[in-house]
Amino acid sequence: MADTVNSVHLNVARGANEHPVRRFFRATEIDTRLLGMVGALMIIWISFQISTGGLFLTPRNLWNLTVQTSSVAVMATGMVLVIVTRNIDLSVGSVLGFCGMVMGVAQAQILPQYLGLGHPAIWAITLLIGLVTGAAIGALHGVIIAFLGVPSFIVTLGGLLVWRGATWFVTSGQTVAPMDTTFRLMGGGTEGSIGATASWLVALIACLAIVWALLHARRQRKRFGFPRRPIWAEYVLGGVGCALVLGFVAVANAYYWPANIARKYADANGIAWPDGGLLISHGIAVPVLVAIAVGIVMTFISTRLRFGRYVFAIGGNPEAAELAGIKTRWVTVRIFTLMGALCAIAAAISTARLNAATNAQGELDELYTIAAAVIGGTSLAGGTGTIAGAMLGAFVMQSLQSGMVLLGIDSPLQRIVVGMVLVIAVWLDTVYRARAK
Amino acid sequence: MLDNQTPLVEMRNISISFGGIHAVDNASVELYPGEVVALLGHNGAGKSTLIKILSGAYKRDGGDILINGEPAEIGNPRDAKKYGIETIYQTLAVADNVDAAANLYLGRELRTPWGTLDDVAMEAKAREVMGRLNPNFRRFKEPVKALSGGQRQSVAIARAILFNARILIMDEPTAALGPQETAQVGELIKQLKREGIGIFLISHDIHDVFDLADRVSVMKNGQVVGHARTEDVTKDEVLGMIILGKVPPKAIPGPGAMQMA
Ligand SMILES: Nc1ncnc2c1ncn2[C@@H]1O[C@H](COP(=O)(O)OP(=O)(O)O)[C@@H](O)[C@H]1O
Ligand SMILES: [Mg+2]
């Protein structure tokens, strides 16, 4: 009893002396690392906004940024799990290319023969074929790594060459186009966005989910008598979360259809053309929705399921995980299978966006994916990393690239900048971790 | 007193080698319910390797393991746990980057009816068990990497006793601990012994374990020098077994006993 009283006193004393900023972060349990990344993103945005003379922070550019990020962001979520277990996957770009080509041929050449061109089921069957292909390739990599003991670096370096070569063989190097009209919705664009009303609905659901999650967590902790966050911290978290969601949707809805498309739409639907032009909101793009859904599912897998727990345990100490009775090899196989399936989803987004499947699709994407995960806080030493961080990392990289394109910087120089940013980001992270110890 | 009882564990003529090194060579040990057997020997004598065979971490090259007199198939750590064998490894095999509750339940997580991890239930149980073991433990939300040696040790011990072990293996459990924590572990061992659990207690220092053990088994160069009841031998005699392989009169010699000329 005396013990508890003492410790309570201690806590109170500590709370009083603590710097308000530090107390804020401790109470809200906000990851300061993630916050650092948001800060970096803000700096990048504002710098580009100034140097482009106001071209960067426009609804149109921000909306495009989210669409351009989706494909790499989807793969980065899987790369986190791969890197957390001290593996690497260098083949994701080639697997994307191969899955894209397989899906291209399936929807443009094979399925229409049986179902007829434009059949509504084509996109779903195509996607399924892609997912199975990607998962099978990933599983193959995983089995070779886990059961034959070949290092993942080598297996996936081989995969990088093999699947790029295999992509060529599917069509003897020919580009496949166009894609199925429904399938193309996954690529975004004017058609592939859900519009203002649906976007607000998504925002509403997201806000409700945030509030519910906070309430549920608090109730659970109360039930078991665990320490809880101060109530103001809960309000801050809920408020910031909802504000971010609403802000994002507001931006997406502020980007209107281009005038010519809007006019065509107005003509087709017999709408009179108003004086100021017809303002139809894009809303959230379908690929962005897909990426967000993937992010949520992957976060769920990595934090709420046993599989995810094992992934992190293995990353921290493979021997301890094995001794605890975890079937570490199967976990490895499952991680790479998942990675393969995610490559297929990324391939669907990228072929749909391009409206074609090409030989070179996804080239260099492995590097951007790894860079996104690492910039997003995934440690190459294994054991740490978050899905949200990796997706944010992808967003940071894409922001850099788009900004440089807007500034008219040549692509060789773009690569130099991206390369340097990667090194600097990891160096900063090393410094941060050393200080946190 | 033990002669007419079936041993809880019987390891018979166990051998294993790594490359050319016979890490364990024709070693036999046994353990009865409610008994503490100290496994003694120099560093490199083969103690850890022998018990890792029992805990499923290594596969033996030869020999038999009997649990309650029945031959046991132990091919991996999961098999060993099915027989109620729990192990606290010398290397403190904890997953550094997950928290205490996750470590306690690693490989045997509690799940909700939806199949998701039941983290609150695990944390509740972790708080209960850790509260008994180490009342000062507060850092439930941090990865165990951030904990002190003693705290990590209590996590490893809590994990071993959480699942109603019948056979407990403790490989140098007090190596990283201060005097007070060492005494706590001693108390815990006595309590577990009263509950009828059989304990293999490994050490390279006899002073650590002599008072706790009912019997000692001494290893040297992978072989068993001999077994003795603690009450039949002095510390000096046991030291003679460890250092020279010299077996005192009241001890039972093993294959590694010094050959008397
Ligand atoms: N995994 C292994 N690979 C190779 N040699 C090993 C391995 N494990 C143990 N050994 C060797 O086996 C011998 C016994 O080691 P160990 O059982 O750890 O001794 P103890 O625990 O008694 O100090 C040592 O010579 C050690 O080098
Ligand atoms: Mg040892």
TrEMBL record, chain A:
<dbReference type="GO" id="GO:0005886">
    <property type="term" value="C:plasma membrane"/>
</dbReference>
<feature type="transmembrane region" description="Helical">
    <location>
        <begin position="194"/>
        <end position="215"/>
    </location>
</feature>
<keyword id="KW-0812">Transmembrane</keyword>
<feature type="transmembrane region" description="Helical">
    <location>
        <begin position="368"/>
        <end position="395"/>
    </location>
</feature>
<keyword id="KW-0813">Transport</keyword>
<feature type="transmembrane region" description="Helical">
    <location>
        <begin position="144"/>
        <end position="163"/>
    </location>
</feature>
<feature type="transmembrane region" description="Helical">
    <location>
        <begin position="277"/>
        <end position="301"/>
    </location>
</feature>
<protein>
    <recommendedName>
        <fullName>Xylose transport system permease protein XylH</fullName>
    </recommendedName>
</protein>
<dbReference type="GO" id="GO:0022857">
    <property type="term" value="F:transmembrane transporter activity"/>
</dbReference>
<keyword id="KW-0762">Sugar transport</keyword>
<feature type="transmembrane region" description="Helical">
    <location>
        <begin position="335"/>
        <end position="356"/>
    </location>
</feature>
<feature type="transmembrane region" description="Helical">
    <location>
        <begin position="90"/>
        <end position="111"/>
    </location>
</feature>
<feature type="transmembrane region" description="Helical">
    <location>
        <begin position="235"/>
        <end position="257"/>
    </location>
</feature>
<keyword id="KW-0997">Cell inner membrane</keyword>
<keyword id="KW-1003">Cell membrane</keyword>
<feature type="transmembrane region" description="Helical">
    <location>
        <begin position="32"/>
        <end position="50"/>
    </location>
</feature>
<keyword id="KW-0472">Membrane</keyword>
<comment type="function">
    <text>Part of the binding-protein-dependent transport system for D-xylose. Probably responsible for the translocation of the substrate across the membrane.</text>
</comment>
<dbReference type="Pfam" id="PF02653">
    <property type="entry name" value="BPD_transp_2"/>
</dbReference>
<dbReference type="InterPro" id="IPR001851">
    <property type="entry name" value="ABC_transp_permease"/>
</dbReference>
<feature type="transmembrane region" description="Helical">
    <location>
        <begin position="62"/>
        <end position="83"/>
    </location>
</feature>
<keyword id="KW-1133">Transmembrane helix</keyword>
From TrEMBL, chain B:
<dbReference type="InterPro" id="IPR003593">
    <property type="entry name" value="AAA+_ATPase"/>
</dbReference>
<protein>
    <submittedName>
        <fullName>ABC transporter ATP-binding protein</fullName>
    </submittedName>
</protein>
<keyword id="KW-0472">Membrane</keyword>
<keyword id="KW-0547">Nucleotide-binding</keyword>
<dbReference type="GO" id="GO:0005886">
    <property type="term" value="C:plasma membrane"/>
</dbReference>
<dbReference type="Pfam" id="PF00005">
    <property type="entry name" value="ABC_tran"/>
</dbReference>
<dbReference type="InterPro" id="IPR027417">
    <property type="entry name" value="P-loop_NTPase"/>
</dbReference>
<keyword id="KW-1003">Cell membrane</keyword>
<keyword id="KW-0813">Transport</keyword>
<keyword id="KW-0762">Sugar transport</keyword>
<keyword id="KW-0677">Repeat</keyword>
<dbReference type="InterPro" id="IPR050107">
    <property type="entry name" value="ABC_carbohydrate_import_ATPase"/>
</dbReference>
<keyword id="KW-0067">ATP-binding</keyword>
<dbReference type="InterPro" id="IPR003439">
    <property type="entry name" value="ABC_transporter-like_ATP-bd"/>
</dbReference>
<dbReference type="GO" id="GO:0005524">
    <property type="term" value="F:ATP binding"/>
</dbReference>
<dbReference type="GO" id="GO:0016887">
    <property type="term" value="F:ATP hydrolysis activity"/>
</dbReference>
<feature type="domain" description="ABC transporter">
    <location>
        <begin position="9"/>
        <end position="246"/>
    </location>
</feature>
<keyword id="KW-1278">Translocase</keyword>
